Fold this sequence. Notes:
The chain has 3 domains: about 10-210, Aldehyde oxidase/xanthine dehydrogenase, molybdopterin binding domain (Aldehyde Oxidoreductase, domain 4, 2-Layer Sandwich), CATH 3.30.365.10; about 220-285 and about 345-420, Aldehyde oxidase/xanthine dehydrogenase, molybdopterin binding domain (Aldehyde Oxidoreductase, domain 4), CATH 3.30.365.10; about 300-340 and about 435-710, 2-Layer Sandwich (Aldehyde Oxidoreductase, domain 4). Helices cover about 25% and strands about 25% of the residues. The chain contains 16 helices and 30 strands. α12 (about 495-515) crosses α13 and α15 packs across α16 (about 670-685). The chain starts with 20 loop residues before the first helix and ends with a strand.
Amino acid sequence: MTELRRPRRPWDLTPVPEREYFDLLGPGLVTVVPPRRPVAERREGDWQPPTGGAWLHVGEEGDVVAFTGKAEVGQGTRTALSLVVAEELRVPLPRVRLVMADTDLCPWDIGTFGSRSMPDAAPALGRAAAAAREQLVALAAEQPGLSNARNSLVAKEGEVRGPGRSWSYGTLVRGLRKLVEVPADFPLTLPTQWIRAGRPTLDPDAVEVVTGRRMYTSDLRRDGMLHGAVLERPRYGARLEGLADPDALADRGARIVREGEFVGAVAPDPRSARAALEALGPRWRFSPQPNERTIEEYLRQHPETGDDWDRRGRSEGDVETALRRATLRFEAVYHAAYIAHVPLETRCAIAEWDGERVTVWVGTQTPFRAREAVAKNLGIPPEMVRIIVPPTGSGFGGKHGGDVATAAARLARAAGQPVRLGFTREEEFREGYFRPYAVIDVRAGLDARGRLTAWSFHNINAGAAALGTPYRIPNQRVDNVLSQSPLPQGSYRALAATTNNFARESAMDELAYAAKQDPLDFRLAHLEDDRLRAVLGRAAELSGWAGRRRERSHGFGIAAGLEKQSRIATVAEVTVGPSRRLRVDRLVSVFDAGAVVNPDNLQSQVEGAAVMAMGGALFEAVHFRDGVVLNPRLSKYRVPRFADLPEVVVELVDWREIPPAGGGETPMIAVAPALAGAIFDATGTRLRTLPLAPGGRVVARPARPRARRR
């Protein structure tokens, strides 16, 4: 893609009439969907709307350039959002160019996470395109002899057609410099009327991906570029006391950069930069840190204090009284380990200064937050920072913020040359953050007819996503509290929904068996959400749940979940062989995310989510002692391998009457509890701690029965 020139000021910080759209893009038509609140008016710490709007340009060649603040990190958003623009403008997909995550050119955006690209960016882009279409039809209606023929004109295939005549979009905007602001409620094409969207569509750049020609952040080079490294803490909680030899250089040409607590090095190659830091002889002060074996006790005793945006909960009825009156009472504690994101591409940034302005190419999910971080830490105005997100090799929630961008900008400013800062795999583990360790206390009660009458769900440290239950329970209390984590923790794909759903669905499975009911029937008896009931029933049908064979060491498990306005149900089939060796034979998932924009990509998303979720369910765990991660490389941290992969069956529910919901996260959340249920079905061993099968074997730590009758 040809790099667009830099505007005088970032367009999201510039009033709409003052933006030089036509100077940079050429004559034509521009439509702008403004942000819900001007970005310039917000104060630091304000919660912003998920999208800052959208804008779009139709040029004299009939080409379309659209702009969004969302980033493409491998999830297929570029193709899906381009399909929305093509649909509303009635143009072939190759005519649409989507500029993403460039803070000079794109609308302000809170970040690419939470499955919000389709719910938020798609409507904004769609309205910009739909308004452009109507403007083009209006321009055609102004042609001589058509004053009364407006209703006979139609936009189709990049032109406006009328009785016996047609005009290409390029012809209609030739010499035009028209800017139109679009109302936030401008009507969109109903999904039931889609022609281009809703059909299987290959990523136009798919060949570049599979042949290695796509240029990711790690592949980029700038003239005169040097390589940087940052001094790494030997363990969490360590503080730098001093340098034994601050003037030492391990390699000729290396340069040390120290600004406050920041210490880095710049050299012609990465190895020399790291060697220079080692030669400094850093002295560290260490403080005692909790160990893995005491993590539950530590988290229970160290809650976060003060205001906490993620501290949520709700209560209905009288839970304690309902528990006392229950015919059968159940209690259990579920755990989920810290796990790492393990993106295919580690974090990387390239910074280059031009006078007082800096451009940083960085793989981040939050480019506008990165702009703020660079500006604040380097003491320059935000308009002097440009963040560009090239195609990025996945993030899974692990590429938020601006630490890497800030460090690269510091090093480049000191060196007076472009600097590339790329993490090794070990640095990715040790300098990143993890999915939080979770401890979840569940108590529940059933009446004499096997109906849930009481539910208490106390979440420690996981987070609030999917905290509530979709099941009908008259007396319930759910709450969440974060803890002072000994390891850095943060966003992970599906946030807390994976661990919360693991505990809830595992408990539902245990309750079903305690009530001597089929796990599917027990769930259906307590569900009111028709869409969730539908995917659960369909997954059971596809997997052959009713006719499943009952054999020793062979088991089935089922689970469901609702999150991000989408629904998932998964059935797992496993075999536990000699030495408790686990084989996952099949995963069957049915997914409902409303109207499906690109079935091919969504199918891949669900399949990929199932495989990734298998890792956290079965193998993955960050091991640590005294603030040191003990397995910071893939030879010691196991992710799913090709030999682990089962048959994966996916069916999509395409509700054209319902707006598209996000598809990147919810497909994760039913895998772990389905596998736990299948392992119990195969072995009689109930496991309540993730991972379930470290090293590929079912762990021999069965949970004690905790259901008892009055």
